[in-house]
Structure formats: C-alpha cells, structure tokens
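Page 47, continued from p. 46.
Same chain as before, 575 aa.
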Amino acid sequence: MSLIETRREQMFPKLTSAEIDRLRGLGDVRRFAGRSQLMSAARPSPGMIVLISGAATVARRDKPGHTSPIVDMGAGDFIAEVGDLSGRPSLVDVQAASDVEALIIPPERLRALMIAEVELGERIMRALILRRVALVEMGAGGPVLIGGETSPDIIRLQGFLTRNSYPNQVLDPAEDPDAKSLVERYAPGPGELPLVVCPDGSVLKNPSETELSRALGMVRLDTSNQTFDVAVVGAGPAGLATAIYAASEGASVIVFDKLAYGGQAGASARIENYLGFPTGVSGQALMGRAFVQAQKFGVEFSIPTEVDRLVCDETPLALHLTDGRKVQARSVVVAAGARYRRLSLSNVKDFEGRGVWYWASPIEARLCRSEEAVLVGGGNSAGQAAVYLSGFATKIWMLVRGPGLAESMSQYLIDRISAAANIEVLFETEVTALAASHEGRLDRVRWKNRKTGEETERAIRNLFLFIGADPATDWLRDCGVALDKNGFVKTGFDAGASPGRSGSEVHEGTKHQSSVTGVFAVGDVRSGSVKRVGGAIGEGAAVVPELHAFLRLASTPSQQSEPAAFAEDRRASSA
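Result:
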C-alpha cells in the first residue's frame, strides 16, 4: 500500500474555520476562477495555499507530456510540501476545480507559523514531511531519468537525487516505448545517455550533478549581496547541528555541501547506537529530519555547491565557490568532513560508479541481488553496510587488514556479523587486483592473505570500500588555518595564535576555534574529534555559544548587529 493510503489523515489534516482565521494575518486572501493554475511544477512556489472555499486538484507529471492526479483538495485543506519552507520550485501542478478562495502564506511566514503555532505547526510540519516522502515514493514531481537501470550514470544521478530526497523516476528505453522515442529524438549518438527530462520540459544529456541541480532550481544564486552571520561548509551531522542551533537563536546561516546533506552518516543503512532510537534509524531518515528542521529555522542551503577557497584577510570572510560566486560571512564553521579513501591500486578510479562504491544505499544494494559482493573495512560504517547488504547478496566477503574487529567496531555489530550466515570475515586480508568486463565494469576481484600469502580471485561485480577517509581541507589552503600532520584542523589551545585578525582574545576561551579567528571547525574534520554521529552533533551544538561570543565582540557599527536572539540570551545571562 502507498503512503497516501496508510497515512492519509496525517498527510491531509483538515484545518478548522477557527484555525484558518488564526492564519489570516500571515498571508493574503486571493480568489481564482475555475481551471486556474494555482501552482505549476518547476516554477517558484508561492508558499502554502490554504483553501477557504472551493476545490483544487493536485497532479504529478509522471511522464514527459503526461500528468496524473494525486489528490483532490477542498475547503480546510492546505497545499504545500517541504520545499515550500524555502521557496523552492513546486514539484506538482495544482489546478482549481471550481472557483476558489485561498489564503496564500509565503515561505518566510510559513516558517514563522511553525515556530509561533506549536500544535498547529507540528501537524502541518508532519504533513509536509510525509508529502515529500510520498512524492519520492511515487517518483512524482522530479526529473525522469532515461537509460538502463544499471547504467553507471543513471546510478550516479539517481543516487544524487535520492540522497537529497528529490523525487525522480527511471525509464528504461529497452522496455518503455515513450522513453525509446525520446532517445531516438534527442540522443541518437553514443555517449549522450542518460537523458534527463526536467519538469519544465527541458532535456539534458548526461548532465553533471551541478548542471542537473541548476536545471531543477535546487540551488539559488541570489545570495551574493548578503552577508551571513555564519557560513557552514559541510552538511553532515556536525554542519546540520551547527546550522540548526545557530539559526534557532536568530543567526542568518548558509550551508554549503558539494554533493548532498547528511555526509557519510546520511549514507549509513542503519544507525543503532544513537541516543533515542532503540530500534535504530537509517542515516537518510535521521539526516533528512535535521535538513527539514534547519529549513524550519530559515537556514539557506546551497547544495550541491563546492567551496574552492576561503579568504581570511578580508572582513567579512569571503568564500569563493567553484562556480565563480563569492559569498561573505562574519564567521565560518568548517564541517567538511572527509573524502572517502581509495585503495592503493592504479585502476580503482576506473571502476568508481562501475562496481566500486563508497556507500551502500538501496540503489547499490539492488545491484548485489543474488550475487556475491566484497566489502573492505573494519569500522562501524563497514559493519552497518555488511549487515545491510547481506539482505540482498548471496554472500558478503568482508576483508579486514587487521587481526580482529574489537578495536574498531561496536560489539553489537560484531555479534550481528557473526550471526549472519552469508557474511564471511577474512582478517589480515587486502585487495590486490581488479579486472574489468568487456563493458568496462568491475568483473573480478583478487585478494591476498597478508600472513600466509594465499591469493583468491572470484567473479565479483560489486566492491564496497569503507577504509577510512582523508580530511576535506584543501579549500583552506589560502587561509593559514593550522592543520595537524594528517591534515585535520587544529582547534582550541592546539591551534596556536591567530594570525592577523582582530578578536584573538576569543580564541583562548574556545575549544572549536581554529588558528584563524572567526574560523571554527567541528565534526570529523577537526583534529582530535570523536568519529561518531553523536559526537559530531554534539560539537555542532557546542560551537554555537562560541559563535555567539565571537559575533558579539566582532560587531562594529558598520557591520550587521548581532542576532537579536544572541543579544537577548547575553542580556539574560548577564542578569
């Protein structure tokens, strides 16, 4: 059964006349004639539409040039989903089925509603989240990807959209006649697949993630004239926690990430040792809730966007992006996490996206169905992935360089791996060679026992690597931020004196400030951090009082005044 069928009451709660009256001050009442368009997919959403009278039909564009109704709405219903919190383009078409009187609440006032009206805001927020989940479940409102289901570029694009909770669907031209005709029309030559048909009707040929995000309106480009209180680089657990706590206290916050929100945690199949989730929670679900929560408090997200370099000798600080834009911020929080580490084999990069994977989502898991797979690594992420993939693959060969798992993996995962009949752990073993099929995909994997020298080669088409990561700090090269011998950001007393920026007295009392005043680091990228989801979230929360102190002391009459909530908190503390 679909989500709409099982949770209809929560997805479509009715507002009473009294509740609508309470909302009137947040929006404008407008009237629409029958058959008028209230929302159009791919166009900027006006915000939440509350139907006072009349009826409207919500429809999805399920194939190029074709729409299907999702639900009919009447008086007391409201039309919105998560994207309306931040004014992103609509994912659906909404047409008046009769003359309609409606209350239009723009995004900034919708966010204010969520905070001011606790009980009503909770009901609306739950509905917005469930509606986005339903759209993702149906593949409604997003782009149509045309190509083979196992095509490396289909997997790349589908993975990008899925990790960002963006609806999408895949049509195989070998099975769908409409998809076949589009391929014949738009991509007659080799190398032009996959095609991406966007909701506005535009067709992209094998786009990059950045090109696709721009076409879908996922990234807004109108932030160059604004100076933010806090710029967070990295949207993993630490970055999201920083954004939520800072924005909830009134700071203006922008978050950058070059791929998707959630970081490595967002790719975890199941997290079972995080406080408050006794039955476990998927990384995507946990980070998805944080992503929505951040939007509720007005955090601006720019994903996917890569920061090329940070310039620290300017006030405010300047983040130069790879797309040529420059964004200014009074403080910067480095939460960039780490880059996945590769095997030391010359051809491993050739197989990335073609059988070599650095995370285990349902997209990659389906490729292992009824096949054997190899997983390399001995940490918690490797253990979670092995347990998850064992539900799809006939056998998981788990290769560990060390002599055991106890020093690097939680006991509950060790016990679960031991209990799985189709997981075989090989200690002191490493991959020595990868071979390709005639199509260029991974076809065979060879590994060697380092102690005995015995080598094994098997027909394996999927290899998962969880062998640690290197800090993503290259973009700090021009800023003079002190790094440890492994490239992680030094903070607190370990960082040394602040070179050339005012306010260095703040540095001595902070744990998360780097050697450059106004530049902080949290999460996996920070030297000495605990590499756990809970630790990263804790650091993201702990850095906010330090930001508070820095922004207060760094304020000058020529700069933006400190956030009102920060000032109020300071006055209360003084009292």
